[in-house]
Amino acid sequence: MGPLNETHDSGLSSWLASANAPGCDFPIQNLPFAVFRRVGADEAFRGGVAIGDAILDLGCAHAAGAFDGVAAQAAAACAGSALNAFMALGPSAWSQLRLALSRALRAGSKRADGLRACLLRQADAQYAVPAVIGDYTDFYTSIHHATSVGRLFRPDNPLLPNYKWVPIGYHGRTSSIVVSGQPFRRPIGQTLPPGAHTPRFGPSQRLDYELELGVFIGPGNAPGSRIPIAEAEQHVFGLCLLNDWSARDVQAWEYQPLGPFLAKNFATTISPWIVTLEALAPFRVPWTRPDDDPQPLPYLESEHNRAAGAFDIQLQVLIETVSMRATGLAAARLSQTSFRHAYWSIAQMVAHHTVNGCNLRSGDLLGTGTESGPTPQEAGSLLELSGGGNSPLSLPDGQTRTFLEDGDTVTMRAWCEKPGAVRIGFGEAVGQVLPALA
Length: 438
What we know:
By secondary structure, the chain is of the alpha+beta class.
């Protein structure tokens, strides 16, 4: 993606006062995309951009004459119920629409009066999955998570030898990807209790979350071609939060020899807002690899990736139980880490995914895999935080958790901040566990 430009100026403010509030997820320097409609309205979903506590309806703004040229074409591509057509336009169109939005929403803009009618409070909106996701691939980019989980499943061989050479991933299920706020049923399946010789069938007793980021693909590649790592980020539209709910007891029984299946495909929750790579430009950091680790093969190596291929995105998980909700207790933080600790970068994920000729398509979703940091408090799953269920976590109301119980609500948040730049956020990915079907 391009360098910093006027849209990143920390001195910019918006004519919408809520966008200028300290700690706001959606200042004018962010401008993430989603599809939405008014709650309770019998109307189509359409594309919008977050600004402060509101959503700018892009179709309405386009009709009001807020854009021209390529920006107008890009805004028109957001008028439908999914953002695939917009994602397919590529970085130049995304950037030109972002610039036009920034100028239209800035304090002093002559378009302010005309655009106020195109705003909807986020509190009055409902969201849908922002793209038609043709394929979903979940990677395994955190070496800290891979090592911690490996110790639980394979104490004598926690990190398999291929991990430091190849970005590991598996193909997931798109039909069960839901947007934040939608509850899901506790999954049912086969498990093998400790000491048992035959499996049992019933609701999972070791239900977990996984703290991840989702990567939405922009322009794809033709079948049989591949995306070089130096061009990979031109094919990435933006990032969202992703919670890959996991039934650990089902996983332990089924994952050999072919990996995750029913333990993962029952539900995946994503946040409604997609933060573009351009918005994240101020928060890039060098991608690093320990000197004594294997260095990437040439197709996974580039100067840009080394210099600025990682992102310092803070990631946080909170839990709210039924009793906490009933007594008015705030959700309790379980962990916090940063995406900068990922062993494999976004560009490496894209380059590796296509190196064999696999074609990605606009709207495809890649998951980063559970993001855990180097300290125990930075673990991105209950499996790690509870030591495989052996060390229960204490919650503020006196309850404990090793894994999730019915009624628990998990909230994931993400944001970027640093001196000299305006804080930007991702909103939330929220999901609640409902009892298993009888």
